[in-house]
Amino acid sequence: MLKYYRSVLSPIKVFLILLLIISPFGERVLLAQSNFPVSCSPYLLPQYSLNWSALTSSNNFLKVTLVLKDEKYQSGIVPVFLRFRFEQAGSVISTRLDYVPAIPINLSFGTPLTLYGSDLVNYFQAGNLIAQGAVDESLLRQGGRLPDGLWTLSVTAYEFDASRGHRQISETGIAMMQVFYGYPPQITYPAEGQVLQEQEVQNLLFSWMPRGTASRGGISGLIYTVELYEVSDGEVPNAVVQGKRPIFSTTTNTSNYLYGITDPALIVGRKY
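Above: the chain's sequence. Below: its structure in token form.
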């Protein structure tokens, strides 16, 4: 007989990204008013965390696309640099006004250039930023987690040429992100403490029900980690999870996992 014990699950962080999208008509109006030769479009990608270190340690969090679109620059290269601003009610993290990177970003007419977190490491060094409000500056040095809530990211490109006063050369691109906490999924099979019948061919469907997501998009964006532990007589399941390695571990973006013959064999009479 197989016995299944369900351990207490820690809360799952669920992240929702909101991107500011400007319609083609609206964009033409904006550019006509600003008349900037460069477009700047930041994106916060679906797989991300709110750890400050994730901005540059993972390319699955942030990217910025720049396009030099003014025809008068067709025959040359335009060197630029960026300034970032993360803002929440009462908190601001921004690029120092006196910071100019040693190496510019070179743009060619009509060729989009996409920069990822690993390309922007120097911009997010603690010494190149100013933190104001409720943000602890140790977060910038140690890569801690941003405070919860709605954050607005603004990115603007400036001319690299100091003799021209580092003039603004793009409109300000904006993206937004919001973090909230969801409840852990509800395991639907097997039930807690359920005794399972022996099978000739190992074929066990673990299933659970998502809870506490803000939208269907939030549910579809979740990644679950499935871990299986063996529990000996007298052991507490939660202590086993904290102190031992699982006999099996995998990830899935669905709300079930079919534990089959290619997975480690479960032994009759033991508890898992």
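Residues 2-11+182-259 form one domain.
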